[in-house]
UniProtKB/TrEMBL annotation:
It comes from the Bacteria. Keywords: Membrane, Transmembrane, Transmembrane helix. The chain crosses the membrane at residues 7-28. This is Haem-binding uptake Tiki superfamily ChaN domain-containing protein. The lineage of its organism: Bacteria, Pseudomonadati, Bacteroidota, Sphingobacteriia, Sphingobacteriales.
Length: 352
């Protein structure tokens, strides 16, 4: 019996040692991937960072910014601050560039419902909730109280605009029930938008939209399909991409069969500095920001080190998800030109 106990004890301690070694390797490899702040990058970023409070700062943009056809914001779904940011960017672009067409990660039927809501004489909260529930089919992490509040605010803003400037939603995504695999979802979105531009004669209109982060990458990474933004550039649309990254923030993760979810459906494991997702070079941005802030970084100035490196465009998923590895010879500004860093964002709030 003593011999059996000794064997069990040794086996148990061996398992603990293996787990401890695995955890240590995980922590060390994460730290090595993230790296320490780099003086070359922090020196550049300190001259090209802009605090975002109630509005997007105009000073962040040079005259070439106005020359784009399409402006895209890419998010990791589930963070409340991104809904506020999306509204701020839409209103900023509407005021600055007259953008009135919002391209959305939803199908045309849902977009039409949303346009009906925006056009009504009074807010129809029931209709808006139907729209949000329809969005939940495609993007469960986005369907939330904050999503409803965003469109409620846009409704109010829209009402004070002349008819010629009112915001209209273009749903460019595939129908949720369209399971055909002959074309990727991103390629379908490009084709759908091209058809809308042609049919509605929008050739001279600038467009803006919020999408999942991968969709706004302007170049195809290694081992990945062509993102929406890369397809748009290939189709001749001048495109500017913003990506939103988070630190010290909570994500809304609805219950699902693929991944264990806490009872409150909120997690804080998917920030840009880990542990489940890592963004190479994020510590350069972290060292220049403070908690409870939103900061915009311009990456494409003429003296930018991001024009010669892959910092921030290389992203690693440690357990689930897809790594984003740029192809040899590509640089960060081939993928996106601006980064928002959100510190201490709350999770989206589940609808009752």
């Amino acid at each position: 019996m003593k011999k059996l106990f000794k064997v069990v004890k040794i086996a148990f301690l061996s398992i603990l040692a293996i787990l401890a070694a695995g955890l240590l390797y995980f922590v060390i490899s994460n730290k090595l991937f993230l790296g320490n702040p780099d003086k070359e990058y922090t020196a550049y970023l300190s001259k090209n960072k802009y605090s975002v409070t109630s509005e997007i700062p105009t000073a962040a943009f040079d005259p070439t910014f106005n020359q784009a056809d399409i402006y895209l914001l890419g998010e990791i779904h589930g963070y409340a601050a991104n809904q506020v940011l999306d509204k701020q960017l839409l209103l900023f672009l509407n005021k600055k560039l007259g953008i009135k067409y919002y391209i959305a990660e939803m199908d045309s039927t849902t977009a039409q419902q949303l346009n009906t809501f925006l056009a009504k004489d009074s807010k129809d909260e029931e209709l808006l909730q139907q729209v949000v529930l329809a969005i939940r089919q495609r993007i469960p992490q986005q369907a939330s109280k904050e999503l409803m509040e965003k469109w409620s605010d846009i409704y109010t803003y829209n009402k004070q605009l002349p008819d010629s400037s009112k915001i209209t939603v273009l749903g460019i995504d595939k129908d949720f029930n369209d399971k055909r695999t002959t074309i990727t979802r991103d390629s379908a979105m490009v084709a759908n938008l091209q058809q809308m531009v042609q049919k509605q004669k929008l050739h001279n209109e600038k467009l803006y939209g919020l999408f999942g982060l991968y969709h706004v990458l302007q170049q195809t990474p290694q081992a990945g399909h062509k993102p929406l933004a890369a397809g748009l550039k290939q189709a001749g649309f001048k495109t500017i991409s913003f990506v939103s990254q988070t630190l010290d923030s909570d994500m809304y993760l609805p219950k699902n069969p693929q991944f264990p979810t806490p009872p409150d459906e909120k997690i804080n494991w998917v920030n840009a500095d880990g542990p489940l997702m890592l963004v190479k070079g994020i510590n350069d941005l972290k060292t220049l920001t403070t908690p409870n802030t939103v900061t915009l970084f311009k990456l494409d100035a003429s003296d930018s080190p991001y024009r010669q490196s892959q910092q921030l465009s290389r992203m690693k998923s440690t357990i689930f998800g897809t790594n984003i590895v740029p192809k040899n010879g590509s640089v960060t500004t081939d993928f996106f030109q601006y980064v928002f860093l959100l510190r201490n964002s709350k999770a989206l709030t589940k609808l009752p």
